[in-house]
Design a protein that fits this description.
The protein is of the alpha/beta class. It has 18 helices and 13 strands. It has two domains: 3-184, P-loop containing nucleotide triphosphate hydrolases (Rossmann fold, 3-Layer(aba) Sandwich), CATH 3.40.50.300; 201-432, Rossmann fold, CATH 3.40.50. It has helices at residues 14-24, 35-43, 51-74, 85-94, 98-107, 124-134, 143-160, 173-184, 212-221, 224-231, 242-257, 278-295, 317-324, 327-330, 342-352, 368-375, 380-383, 412-432; strands spanning 3-8, 29-32, 78-82, 116-121, 164-168, 201-206, 236-240, 265-268, 271-274, 305-310, 333-339, 388-393, 396-404.
Length: 435
């Protein structure tokens, strides 16, 4: 995503949030203030009594705003704009502003369409309270008009088929801001942190319970500078195909409840086993889609890494899976295979399973019969026999390293040495081959 518009009730904190993002991400983000408020302040217009004058001023300001958006995008920045004409139209309908309503069809497409609308959501009562506290009666909107506006705004989004993301803004600021950053794909690095020599994409492979999730958890907890210097991983985002697989299992449950046949799976030991093996290729397709959305922004991985986690088994499991990974991913990827034997994978799979939380991602358990049939045979060492090297996939050379993850350990000193050795070897191969 490159152009996102923020919306929300008065005093929700849009200006303050965008101001913080502009301050901490000056090289990556361009923030544009609310156009209507900017016009009101610049022209000295009364928001409620000079509606026709306001409409004329907004129309006059649109070409300038369009240039600002286009320039931000041309500069390769994430353009974040406060509010939009759809919000003003909703207010116009609440306030019976027939002049703007009549003008709207001619100016509806005056600005580029955003990739997404991000709504900061708070209850109307909270908005009213905050409006009173901030002491700006010239911008205050009462309950009736707010509720009417919200109804019209929702109609506007439905009519336009908007991509609308809603984030709860009535909570602890740190948690809220963290979710905003995650939604925007932003992670603070600081100008002093060198992230130029980090992996773009790591394909994290290995049997279930081999330690992939623990590896990710370890990296999440490390500082960005230490992680970049010691493991060559920048602030990162994770894509894992297991949640998609689990969703298919749950869909089968719904079909079963409706008296229909399950489509992809069967129940096994209070869990599931796959019956439609085409699902494995489907999951790679979903990975391709999710990664493509991220890397469609040419700057998405300039100061970030992406970890793509999945497990495969069978005589040609990894050969088949990797052959379906898109060239756009393979050309920027390095593979880290986390190695444990099948019996150790099964032992850990049992140990981590918590019956009371079996729907959790880290606590899922694969039944023994599924483990044996699907992961008892693993073709990784058939295609990657050396501890590290280059793997040819569809004519693309992909660096790889195999990391022995035995004996099992939670000691951060042990894990540090293990991860550092594997990732340094992988990075050496990656760097030598033009990464």
């Amino acid at each position: 995503m490159r152009y996102i518009v923020f919306e929300g009730l008065p005093a929700v904190g849009k200006s303050e949030t965008l101001s913080l993002l502009a301050r901490f991400y000056p090289q990556r983000v361009k923030v544009l203030p609310e156009l209507v408020k900017e016009v009101v302040l610049h022209e000295g217009i009364d928001l409620f009594t000079e509606r026709d004058r306001l409409t004329a001023a907004i129309i006059a300001a649109l070409p300038r705003r369009r240039k600002e958006i286009e320039q931000a995008l041309a500069d390769g920045k994430l353009c974040l704009e406060e509010s939009h004409l759809g919000v003003h139209l909703a207010y116009a309908k609440a306030l019976n502003d027939d002049g703007f309503i009549a003008s709207y069809p001619q100016i509806a497409n005056a600005l580029p369409a955003p990739d997404c609308y991000l709504r900061m959501e708070i209850p109307v009562e909270v908005s009213l309270s905050r409006q009173r506290e901030r002491g700006t009666p010239e911008f205050a909107i009462d309950r009736q008009n707010l509720e009417t506006m919200l109804a019209h705004l929702q109609e506007w989004h439905i009519e336009h088929g908007s991509e609308l993301v809603t984030i709860d803004a009535d909570r602890e600021p740190s948690t809220f801001l963290m979710e905003i950053e995650k939604s925007l794909g932003l992670a603070y690095t600081g100008d002093w942190a060198s992230l130029e020599d980090t992996f773009d994409i790591i394909l994290l492979l290995g049997r279930p319970a081999s330690g992939k999730s623990e590896f990710i958890d370890f990296m999440y907890k490390d500082s960005r500078v230490h992680r970049a210097e010691r493991y060559h991983i920048a602030p990162f985002h994770v894509i894992d195909d297991f949640p998609v697989l689990w969703e298919k299992f749950e869909e089968d449950d719904l079909w079963e409840e409706l008296g229909r046949d399950r489509l992809y799976s069967r129940r096994a030991d209070e869990n599931y086993a796959i019956t439609d093996h085409g699902l494995w290729s489907f999951l790679i397709g979903k990975i391709n889609q999710q990664v493509a959305e991220i890397i469609s922004d040419p700057n998405a991985l300039s100061h970030n890494s992406l970890i793509v986690e999945f497990s495969r088994g069978g005589e040609d499991g990894y050969v088949e899976a990797l052959s379906r990974i898109s060239p756009a991913i393979l050309s920027r990827a390095a593979i880290l295979y986390v190695d444990v034997p099948f019996e150790e994978s099964w032992r850990r799979n049992l140990a981590r399973y918590d019956e009371t939380r079996k729907n959790g991602i880290l606590t899922h358990s694969v039944p023994r019969i599924e483990m044996q049939e699907t992961y008892g045979i693993d073709d990784w060492f058939k295609i990657a026999p050396d501890p590290y090297g280059m793997l040819s996939v569809n004519g693309i050379s992909v660096p790889y390293a195999t990391m022995c993850n035995e004996p099992e350990s939670t000691d951060p000193v042990v894990l540090d040495r293990r991860y550092n050795a594997a990732l340094n070897a992988l990075h050496e191969v990656w760097s030598k081959n033009g990464a």
